[in-house]
Structures are given as structure tokens and as C-alpha cells.
């Protein structure tokens, strides 16, 4: 079965796997940095009220999130293209293997962009929430 698979299909599968790993790593890094930042701010009351530190963290996290998003979206575009290729290819031979190739899917780039923006805004809101609550109440 694998001998019948074209070199292009093997490369598409390799690209699919590597981009999935890259995207997972980038998302994990994004979540880790966001949680670390929130932990840093919430660990000490003086930091929570220090607007200079929080403003610096806000700007730094926003810049990091922008770069991280750009990297994730670039990899997601490649993943979507590999998925489209795998869904069209006919490896010949066993129909169940062809069905396996067509089962690959990828979330749209726009959905990933929206999710990243949402998580960024939630992280920044969580950082400023005590200040917002204090100002309102």
C-alpha cells in the first residue's frame, strides 16, 4: 500500500504532520506565556496595582501575541493547503486507505485568527479585571 503512494502524497502527509506539530507548539507557547503573565501579575498585590508594570506587560504581550498569531496563521495556511491536496489525491489500491487520506481536515485560517484574538483579549482583560472592578465598584 505505501509503495503505491506517490512521492507528492508522502510529502503532503509529511507537511501535514509537521505543520500540525508546529501549530500545537505555537499555541502551547502562547498559552504558557499568557498564563505566566497572569500568574506574575496576580502573585503580588503591589504588581496588581502598579499600572506601569501592567502597561508594559500589556504592550509586551500584545506584541508577542501579534507575532505568535502571524506564525500560527502562516502554518495554518500550509496545513489547509496540505489538507486540500490530501482530500483530492487518489493513492490507488485500497479504498480504505484513500478514505483515510480524505479524512484529513483543518480549521480555517479565519477561525484560527478569531480564536487567537479572543484568547488574547481574554488574557488582557483578566490581567486588568481587578482594576476594572475596583474602578466600577
Oligomer: single chain
Mean pLDDT across every amino acid position: 89
Total domains: 1
Tell me the number of strands: 0
Fraction in beta strands:
under 5%
How large is the radius of gyration? 21 Å
H/E series, N to C? HHHHH
How many angstroms separate the termini? 67 Å
Global geometry = rod-shaped
Estimate the helix proportion, in percent: over 70%
Uncertain segments? none
Largest pleated sheet = none
Which class of secondary structure composition applies to the elements?
mainly alpha
Number of helices: 5
Description:
With 137 residues, this protein is mainly alpha-helical. It has one domain (7-136). Helix content is 84%, strand content 0%. It contains 5 helices and no strands. The chain has helices spanning 7-42, 45-49, 51-88, 95-102, 109-136. The termini are far apart. The model has no long low-confidence stretch (mean pLDDT 89).
Give the structure's gist in a few sentences.
Helices cover 84% and strands 0% of the residues.
Question: Helix and strand layout, with pairings?
Answer:
Elements: H1 7-42, H2 45-49, H3 51-88, H4 95-102, H5 109-136
